Amino acid sequence: MADALISVLLERLVSITYEYVEGELKHVLNVKEDVEKFTRTLRVIRAVLEDAERRQVTDQAVKIWLDELKDISYQMVDVLDEWNTDILKQQVEKREREGDPNALVTKKKVRFSRCFCFGKVSRVILRRDIALKIKYLNDKLTEVYEERKKYQFQSKELGIQQPQQPQRPQTASFVDISEIFGRENEKKDLITNLLSDSSAEGKGLLIIPIVGMGGMGKTTLTQLAYNDDRVKSHFEIRKWVCVSDPFDEIKIAKAISGDYAPSSNELDEVLQCMSRSIQGKRFLLVLDDVWTDDPKKWKQLKVPLFQSGAEGSRILVTTRKLEVANMMRATRNMINLGGLSDEYCLSIFNHMAFSDRDGHESKVFGDISKEIVKKCKGLPLAAKTLGSLMQNKTKMGEWKEVLNSKIWDLETVEQEVFQPLFLSYYDLSPTIKCCLLYCAIFPKDYEIERDDLINLWMAQDYVISKKSEEKGTTGDAVFDNLVARSFFQDFEKNRNTGTITSCKMHDIVHDFVQFLTKNECLIMDHTECTTSESKLLGDKVRHLTLRYFLDGPLAISSNNCQKLRTLATFDSRITTIDSNLILQLKCLRTLNLSGNSIKELPEEIGELKHLRHIDLSFNCILEKLPDTICGLYNLSTLRLVWCSELKKLPENMGNLINLKHLYVLLCGRLASFPKGIGRLTSLQTLDLCHCDGNNNEAFQIGDLRKLNLEGSLAIHLVGDATDKSEVEKAQLWDKKLFHLTVYFERQTNSSSSSVEILNALRPHPDLESLKILYHNGTTWPNWMQSLHNLRFLTLVGGTQCELWPLGKLEYLETLTLRSMDGVRKVGVEFLGLEDQTSFRIRSPQILFPKLKRLWFGLMLNWEEWEGVEEWTKEDSEITIMPCLSQLTITGCPLLKALPDFVFKTPLQTLRILRSERLLERYQEGNGEWAKISATNPNIRIIRDR
Ligand SMILES: *[C@@H]1O[C@H](CO)[C@@H](O)[C@H](O)[C@H]1NC(C)=O
Ligand SMILES: *[C@@H]1O[C@H](CO)[C@@H](O)[C@H](O)[C@H]1NC(C)=O
Ligand SMILES: *[C@@H]1O[C@H](CO)[C@@H](O)[C@H](O)[C@H]1NC(C)=O
Ligand SMILES: *[C@@H]1O[C@H](CO)[C@@H](O)[C@H](O)[C@H]1NC(C)=O
Ligand SMILES: *[C@@H]1O[C@H](CO)[C@@H](O)[C@H](O)[C@H]1NC(C)=O
């Protein structure tokens, strides 16, 4: 943790700008010199951190030293943040003084300038304060620096092999068959793959990666296959090489050459020899525990292997990193090893615990064994370790003790189960380590949303942005990295795009990160807190998660809150938060009070100037936010999802110049935004934008112009003043939006028709997904056909009785149509034809060329879906929906039949729900149904009765 924290701090220290401290203080205190000295010292210390972090596990004195160092680092981060915030404040005030042409009422100006005169004096004091703090921290660091000599740490720069480096276990091909449980299917598949005649690619050599987290049994499975009799007789040569880190080509090549290996360390010679030893032979090579994903290293080895081996040769690779399989371009044959069932874990456990004992004991401890095994969460290594731990325990008390202890408190678990995880952990960069450890704030088995998590990392300054456009480590990259290294699992993916939207952590991994952050991250249940909580909340705690706090004010009577950087509640229903508590939380970065019953927040929240992330979502009785929130210049995320009683946002929101993400979805009473939001030039995410045309004082759609929105945007148009010239001012086409939703207020009498408004809303040409709700018009917007990336389209409501000619959209993959009461008939116009005969005069056409999924819902008056008569002819020159695989019709009670062309598509799933007439017509077994099955035998029909 210290390593990660300090690396991030150093990055910040080198990018400081000093112009701000020039002036008043220059002659009194030399901030620049102090910061530079601090940086130099910290650099030297960083060199020994790796050693120190490893030794702290066993050496208490080292741990204390490290804690002191971390403390200083955290304080320095806070000082730098204060400094930055102050610069920001100056910017805001400067802007106010110079006057914002965009709408500053005179009254406000006056107030601000008074503020400014007053501010000048306090500013000098503040700066002096900052300078003094830096000087103090500098002295403290020097002490720590001196003290380090006592411990004789190994410095990284010296290149000495770390004596404490966790042992990478050397694996061998030997396997004790009696210890294998489960994995029957994996074994069968693997052996089939090894023995199959020719590889799928038609090449001689096949690479099979086995990927999974540490302790999952990859090596064991490989050993099983390697020692299988059929495998033994099939291959002329079998070699087992334990690769580990670093990837040493020479060592590996020598291992393959076996007895013929030359003594030379000349790569070329060694490779030649390796080639000769396998020349023309069918070989099986196991590369166990590969870590490198450097294609250069791999290529050197791969080329001679591919050239020399005979047809049918195989390379088995075990690894924890998906990147390795990617690098080898072998993901096609990959075996992904997940957890075992509890039954299998129990077998392993019993085997280890009771194999030398009489059956009586296994009966006595049978039930408790089952409970203990649940802690393993499918990880065979954990079952094995716990099993061996119980081997000579004979008293019930001893068994109960293990059952009731936290898994990491058991020393053997720490040593053995965490061992493989430590290896993965040490392989991460400092930033990614920080990000991983931060996940300790979530309760076990919690479903973590990708975007939330990335925002949280940003709030702690671990990563600098979400997307890959800015330089530096980005949240997306870190997330994908942790996924690829098996730290996350149980993914939910976006149905359309396939990107991972949420994940969980394996329990053992969660235990592991909690173990590593033991003093810094704390999850506290209400019951634990009512007793002696000041003891529980140690002075090192930085991230506090509270659970099960019931109705009533949130008050923690502890003096150790000053250092908190995260405060979050889960499964709680607090009604207020004590203002004295708030005042203590001076260092807080993230405040998550989502899901409580808070009506009002104390004004004191404005004092928490480091706050970057506030989550007040799902507080259904929250009525307003204190104005003081507008002084949190560093605030970057404000989440207010489903605050259904919230009527307005604070008037001065425009001052939050760092605000990047604002979430206000499902705030039913929020009808408009303050004008100032138009000045938030950093704003990237705005999940729903309220544009009230009736209220000139409020945010108008044209005010979107200055925002740097990216990703997705939803616009809610209210009132009759939304005319097209106002809409055009938004210049939406300049914003890199991928998803756009336009929501018309249902009863509106705007001066422009809704199609005129839509025309003015022309989006960026890269738009991928579009949703329009309650549009009232039969002509489609004039930019529709120029959206060459449009893949997802949803149309909801509206009074139009004809559908747009959507078949002309060449790139459309998913089309959803819902609640269009006006529609009685879907004619050929929908496909993009003018009438039944128009296609005759044209050249061959493909209608809906890329459409895969088509969904009609709640079209209550829809009776007829017209087919294309001429289309059935042999020489027809049109093709309709050649990619369609799913069609859903739900809640269309009057629709009589589906057109014939539907059944000529490669349709696989047809869902008919709550649509009586269709259900009757296509009943299984009747004539119509038989006809369909004959045309398209692959079709699967799903109905609701
Ligand atoms: C806080 O403000 C500083 C100064 O502008 C900035 O560098 C930093 O990124 C801000 N933090 C966040 C989370 O936006
Ligand atoms: C059995 O328990 C004793 C202490 O009671 C311990 O020293 C010994 O190492 C244990 N043996 C095994 C195999 O765990
Ligand atoms: C905030 O807490 C709620 C549960 O109370 C959780 O669902 C949400 O993911 C948390 N948000 C963040 C950003 O941590
Ligand atoms: C529509 O316009 C009329 C007259 O301009 C106005 O009286 C009425 O309130 C408006 N209706 C709505 C729903 O805005
Ligand atoms: C839809 O538009 C027509 C004219 O184009 C108008 O008469 C009708 O009132 C509109 N309906 C709604 C609900 O706005």
What does this protein look like?
- The chain is an alpha/beta fold and 945 residues long.
- The chain contains 30 helices and 31 strands.
- The protein has a 17-stranded parallel sheet. The protein has a five-stranded parallel sheet with strand order 2-3-4-1-5, sandwiched between helices. It has a three-stranded antiparallel sheet with strand order 6-8-7.
- The protein is globular, with a radius of gyration of 33 Å.
- The chain binds 2-acetamido-2-deoxy-beta-D-glucopyranose (NAG) (5 copies).
- One 2-acetamido-2-deoxy-beta-D-glucopyranose binds at residues 776, 799.
Percentage of residues assigned to helices: 25-40%
Number of helical elements:
30
CATH fold-type name of the domain at 177-336: Rossmann fold
The residue-averaged pLDDT reads: 82
CATH-defined superfamily of the domain at 177-336: P-loop containing nucleotide triphosphate hydrolases
Percentage beta strand: 15-25%
How far is the N terminus from the C terminus?
57 Å
**Computed CA radius of gyration, to the nearest angstrom:** 33 Å
Secondary structure: number of strands: 31
Oligomer class: single chain
> Main beta sheet: strand number and arrangement?
17 strands, parallel
**Morphology:** globular
Per-chain topology:
Layout: H1 2-14, H2 31-55, H3 60-98, H4 106-147, H5 184-195, E1 205-211, H6 218-226, H7 229-234, E2 237-244, H8 249-257, H9 267-278, E3 283-290, H10 295-308, E4 313-319, H11 322-327, E5 335-336, H12 342-354, H13 359-364, H14 366-374, H15 380-390, H16 396-404, H17 411-416, H18 418-426, H19 430-438, E6 448-449, H20 450-459, H21 475-484, E7 488-493, E8 500-505, H22 507-516, E9 521-525, H23 526-530, H24 533-536, E10 543-547, E11 553-554, E12 566-570, E13 576-577, H25 579-584, E14 590-592, E15 613-615, E16 637-639, E17 661-663, E18 685-692, E19 711-718, H26 724-729, E20 737-744, H27 754-760, E21 769-773, E22 792-796, E23 814-818, E24 825-826, E25 845-847, E26 853-857, E27 864-865, E28 878-880, E29 886-890, H28 901-904, E30 909-913, H29 916-921, H30 927-935, E31 940-943
Parallel strand pairs: 1-4, 1-5, 2-3, 3-4, 9-10, 10-12, 11-13, 12-14, 14-15, 15-16, 16-17, 17-18, 18-19, 19-20, 20-21, 21-22, 22-23, 23-26, 24-27, 25-28, 26-29, 29-30, 30-31
Antiparallel strand pairs: 6-8, 7-8
The protein binds 2-acetamido-2-deoxy-beta-D-glucopyranose (5 copies).
